[in-house]
Amino acid sequence: MSNSNAVTKVDDFDIDQMDVELNDSDIEVSDKEDNSSDTNAALREEFDASNKSLDATQLYLGEIGFSPLLTAEEEVLYARRALRGDEAARKRMIESNLRLVVKISRRYSNRGLALLDLIEEGNLGLIRAVEKFDPERGFRFSTYATWWIRQTIERALMNQTRTIRLPIHVVKELNIYLRTARELSQKLDHEPTAEEIASQLDIPVEDVSKMLRLNERISSVDTPIGGDGEKALLDIIPDANNSDPEVSTQDEDMRNSLIFWLEELNPKQKEVLARRFGLLGYEPSTLEEVGKEIGLTRERVRQIQVEGLRRLREILVKQGLNMENLFDVDMD
């Protein structure tokens, strides 16, 4: 007998059987006891709902475990048929990749949505991937599908829990720096540097740089580069804490694809994006830091970044990937 079944039976006895015995014995229950009974009923209802959710998850995981994976050759065969409208092939493509959805969904646990809800959202992305996948482009389907699965999950989480929470003292300190920066920009008629902000506040430049870097990076994982806003850079950068070989392989495939697409940009655009977002061996840097490293102004770096992102978006669209949220920065 499983632990969950055992607990359920004990719970049924404690509540239901007790109610029967009290009624049969004609025992008068006080208002206080009534309240306790109501509480027990509420707790039982909550427990049962939790149990049902757990059971449903286990049942689902058990069912999809019987769906065989496709070989690379089968993948191309079924994908071609699905593109021609073969419903059986489409269904086979979906069913054979349901475990991929579960693997990805588990990485988003404890962020505001139950696992089954995450899986449901991920399955929508999987279906979309099957509809859009073109095997002639040379991608493995798992790599392509991962983009869409993450997209739908991230969007659901964004709608559920959008706010990034920071310690209150960090928020207060950041607000001081940002307010000072706004005031200086009005006085100086240009966006102030970290040195100018530090001088105004009489604090170390490094403290200002650290907070401004934090602010840029917080806002650099979700902001759309235009259009629908369907993808974030966070989705394609491998999780260093993830130990799942299959997911790590898919992340590496996507990173390699991104590096390949960067080669389509001109050298300056490629270097700016690589330095800004931590690609090609660079550490992520602020616009100001990149400017100092390559001898350009912050504003010029921003302009090159915008141009590069627009070009990158065009490339991704041609690949059938509507990655309007690939990098989180303003397009203007």
Automatic annotation (TrEMBL):
Q: Where is this region: Sigma-70 factor domain-2?
A: 93-163
Answer whether the UniProt record assigns the keyword Aminoacyl-tRNA synthetase to this protein.
no
User: What GO molecular function terms would the record report?
Assistant: DNA binding; sigma factor activity
Q: Where is this region: Sigma-70 factor domain-1?
A: 55-88
Q: Which GO annotations describe the biological process of this protein?
A: DNA-templated transcription initiation
- Annotated DNA-binding ranges come to 287-306
Q: Extract the ranges annotated as region (Sigma-70 factor domain-3).
A: 173-248
- The annotated region (Sigma-70 factor domain-4) lies at 261-314
One CC-aspect GO term? cytoplasm
Q: Note whether Metal-binding occurs among the keywords.
A: no
Annotated RNA polymerase sigma-70 domain ranges read 117-130, 286-312
Primary residence: cytoplasm
Gene3D superfamilies, sorted:
RNA Polymerase Primary Sigma Factor, Winged helix-like DNA-binding domain superfamily/Winged helix DNA-binding domain
Subcellular localization:
Cytoplasm
Motif Interaction with polymerase core subunit RpoC is found at 117-120
Instruction: List the keywords (alphabetical).
Output: Cytoplasm, DNA-binding, Sigma factor, Transcription, Transcription regulation
Task: Outline what the protein does.
Answer: Sigma factors are initiation factors that promote the attachment of RNA polymerase to specific initiation sites and are then released. This sigma factor is the master transcriptional regulator of the stationary phase and the general stress response.
Looking up HAMAP family in the UniProt record yields: Sigma70_RpoS
What the record says about family reads: Belongs to the sigma-70 factor family. RpoS subfamily.
Give the record's subunit note. Answer: Interacts with the RNA polymerase core enzyme.
The UniProt entry, under NCBIfam families, shows: PRK05657.1 (NF004207), rpoS_proteo (TIGR02394), sigma70-ECF (TIGR02937)
**Name of the protein described by the UniProt record:** RNA polymerase sigma factor RpoS
Taxonomy of the source species: Bacteria, Pseudomonadati, Pseudomonadota, Gammaproteobacteria, Vibrionales
- The gene from which this protein is expressed is rpoS
